[in-house]
Every structure is written in C-alpha cells, then in structure tokens.
Amino acid sequence: MFSRGHLSVRGRAARPSGRRAPCGGALAVAVLLSAALAGCSSADRVSAAPCGTPGVGEHQIDLGVLIPASGPAASQSEAARAGIDARLGAANTAGGIHGRRVVYQWRDDQGSAAVNGVAARDLVEQRQVFGLIEPTVAAAGSVAYVTQRGIPVTSTDQVGSSSPTVFAATTVTGEAVDLPGRYVVGEGGRRAVIITTALSAATSMTADYYVRSLTAAGVTTAATFTFSSGADDPAELARRIAATHADTVVGVLDPRDLVAIVSALRGGDYRPKVVLSATGYNHTLLATYGTRMAGISIPVYYRPFELGGPGVEAYAGAMRRFAPQITQPEQDIAVASYISTDIFLRGLDLAGPCPTRAGFVAALRAVNSYDANGLISPISFRPEAANPLVCSAYVQANSAGNAFVVTEPNFCGHPLSP
Fold it and tell me: What is the pTM of this model?
C-alpha cells in the first residue's frame, strides 16, 4: 500500500570533545556558522548507554519520515528529504545527540491521509522508530494514532498542531490571523478569488484561513475555485476568474499550477492587482518560469534568504554539504523540513542521554523561546502560550522574474476570534 525506504545520513559521527554549551533563544547575529550548524545537538562527554525506549540504541537513534514521494504532491518529496538530510548531516558531523547518530527510515504516504496512517503504524510498530518527522500534506491521517500512542512528531502541516505530541514551527493552533488580508489591502486588492485543490485537510484549512483573513481585512471573496492539475484547463479557469471581476488571486495549490493560471489570465489581457501564493518561495521556479512568476507574492514564516544572517548561512552550508543533489537550496519545502528536523533534534537533546517519548514531549513543551538557530522569530511550545503565527515576511518575484524582492521583512497582524 505504501513504498518502503530507508536512509542513514552520510558522515561519521565525530567524537565529542567537551560538554555541551547552552543554546540561545533570540535571533542571533553573532553566532558562528559552526555553532549554528551544530545548534544544540553537540554530544555529551559521557558515552551513550543502551536505553529501553524504541528507536534508541547504543550508537544511534532511529526516526521515521513520511513524505509524499508519489501522488499529487510528489514534487515536494526530493526537497523535503534534502532538508532532513542537511540538518541531520550537520548534527551527526558535530557529534550527534548525546553521542548517538540520528538516522531515519522513510515511507511514501502518497499524499493520502489513509496511507499516511498506515505508514505511521508500520514505522512505529514494525520498524520501532522513536518518533516521526512529517513534511507531508497528509499528516492528518496519523494524528489520532500518534496522539493516542504518545509518539513525538514534528510536522510542516498545521493539521494536528493542537495535539500534545505534534510540534510545528508555523503555528501551534489552527486559528486565523488578519495578516494575508492586510497584505492584500496594502497592495491594492479589494475583491478576491481563491484557487485551491482538493488535496488534503491541510489544504482545506489553509483555504479557509485565507477566506477569514481576507474578510477581516475588508476584502470580499468573490469565489473559490478548485483546480486539478492535468484534469482542468488553466485557460478555462482564467475565463471564470475574469468573470468575477476580482482584482486579487490567492493560490492554495501547487505554485506551478498557479503560474499557469495567472499566465492564462494575463494572456487574456486580464491583470489582477495582487497575486498571492501560499507557497512557491523557490528559486528553482524562477529559473524555470522567469517572467511568468513576475509579481507573485509569497508569505515566508522564516528569515528570507535575501536578508542573509547566521541561520540562513548555516542552512545553505548544510544543504551544500549534505544534500548536494539539490542544486538550488533556496526553496521553501527544503527549509520547512530542515526546521522540522531541527525541532526534533532540540527535543532529543532536551530529553537527555536516555530519552523517552514522554520525556521528549514534556521537555519540548517547556520550551518558551525556539528560533531554529536564527531562521525564525522566537516561538513558544508551551501549551498555555499557544498562539497563531502573527508575523511573516513577504517576498515577491521581480518584474524580470529572475529574483525575489523582500517587500515586507516583518509584517504583523492580529489573531481573529473564533
């Protein structure tokens, strides 16, 4: 029902030479590149001892990874694995976690919630992994199971973020904020259409989030359209969008499909004031589509590459060294996976030399200031501090379609009441 696979991240574990240094919380500007790569995952002086927790051996910790290697979201899989490889490679080269290398086995969940649930059970019950990293659109399929079993999970999917065992950097609740709506208004938009795809619960949640945000900012949602790549005609959808007289197009779908639809709109001499894509901050897309990307804006919850800084440099360095198959590391899926992996490493480090799943969850839930070594603004994992992400950067493809411009380095909004 799902594909099997495994990967042990390259690089021999270096012998630890000293005790761990404390890890800072705020966005640092003076952190050395080597320290940023290692994060908080340097090895202890004391050698690792066998533990009774599944996935925790004398010399390594086994994790499970669920990715959509086939199906409608398959284009995400290579970048997702690259981000994981990069972060684990950096950690293992720095000595691992408490003297243990961290490796993983992966399964293809096909972007399907049903397959995701089955694959999660296989990794936990048959492969005996400690926990899961899920850079997938289908993470909702395993939320009930991992919650009931107390399995630690880090995810790029908002669905399940209210579970006590699931951690995500983008938000810890499904609550909406007025942020995208305020951005649209600032760009001159007043009447919008939303284009989505019937892909997952996460996609539906994101589309609803945009509707609420637009409404709160005074932007009318004229229509919501569903588009299936390969089945629907971009030109036909462009004609339907033009008929709504919308001045704003919001895409909650594969950015390549959004580019095709927007190109059809512009080819028909219909030019919306604002085009906002939920994803697509990917320099590979610029190289592929050029001027067809021009003017498309994208929210970015991490520090944009164009702003640089130690966190960005650490990420880029790790990608070049440990994921060289990705020739263009500046892409959102890879960064999101990298951050999810960093969160898991932070939890393992805090759980101590003989980690348990319950200890991991308790320790990570106590963290009040996590910033992925400077890649994101500090967030809290404490249950009582659960708040939606209220600030993002916004980038926009320039008119030549060969670079992104940071239009808003730190644009903030307000939570919307239920």
Answer: 0.81
